[in-house]
Amino acid sequence: MSDxxxxxxxxxxxxxxxxxxxHAPRRPPAEDLRWGEGPDDVxxxxxxxxxxxxxHIDEVRRWQALKSDGGYGSIAWPVEHGGAGLTxxxxxxxxxxxxxxxxxxxxxxxxxxxxxxxxxxxxxxxxEQKLRYLRPMRRTDEMWCQLFSEPGAGSDLAGxxxxxxxxxxxxxxxxxxxxxxxARYADFGYIICRTDPSAPRHQGLTAFVLPMDAPGVEVPRCxx
Length: 224
Fold this sequence. Notes:
The chain is α+β, with helices and mostly antiparallel strands. The chain has 2 domains: 9-106, no CATH class; 145-211, Butyryl-CoA Dehydrogenase, subunit A, domain 2 (Beta Barrel), CATH 2.40.110. 33% of the residues lie in helices and 12% in strands. It contains 5 helices and 5 strands; from the N terminus they run αααααβββββ. The protein has helices at 9-21, 50-70, 88-98, 108-124, 127-138, and strands at residues 144-147, 163-167, 170-174, 188-194, 205-211. Strand 2 (163-167) and strand 3 (170-174) form a beta hairpin. It is globular, with a radius of gyration of 20 Å.
């Protein structure tokens, strides 16, 4: 334990280790691994069928729900939003412990939900948005995708042309997004649209919450 560790960290690590040992097998020691044995797949994106990817995501979601129910799924989140209310040091300590156990490999759809959209809502969302979205995200009961890139706006996000026009109390979105990992499995999209076409390129952009079952939303089903 270093001087910078929060009080009670060692006790926390002991409890977390006990929990992990009760829910997942430990990884074999390095000396038990032998060249030529086991899988040799190092691909970042798996070549899976639609059903295969769905099964994999469901497995990752079950593990996230299990961790959340045990108090280890959103460790540094505020208690009022379903988190444990602990520090980043506790979160990092659990991640190191978890790496010693055999658990489902991650998927970008879960990563986008938990590591991109959830922190954004925690940071800049309204109280109403936090109340509505964070708790279902904590267990991945609801999934999100990122709707940023377009056919003509990839790394240069300021070039996007998808627009949102206010119509009374609602917004009408018109455009196309690409490279939307996990969109087929998402309940909501975090979408960036141009709301002021007269503003400079890097301005006049607004983020919206887009229900993926909203009228007019089309998500092609790719895969084998």
